[in-house]
Structure formats: C-alpha cells, structure tokens
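Example 3.2
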Amino acid sequence: NSKKEADLESALARLKDLEALLNSKDASLSTALGEKRSLEVEVRDLKAQLAK
C-alpha cells in the first residue's frame, strides 16, 4: 500500500512539473505571437511608406 502511495506522490509531482512547464511554454508562445503581430504591423507600415 505504501508503494502505491509513493507512486501516486511521484505521479502528482511529475504532473505538477509538467503543468509548470506547459504554463511556461504557453507564456513563451503568447510572447512570440505578440512580437509577430508587432512585426507584421511594422512591415505593413514600411510597405505603405515605400508605396508613397
């Protein structure tokens, strides 16, 4: 029974680590997407200036 409890504790700790990793990756993705949008706007503006 104590082995099952230890296995459960280990699995829960792994789950917590994976959730933290996922949150970190999600934040990185959000940052990258925001930067991409900013660059797209900048490119659009520069193209508009060139067209003048």
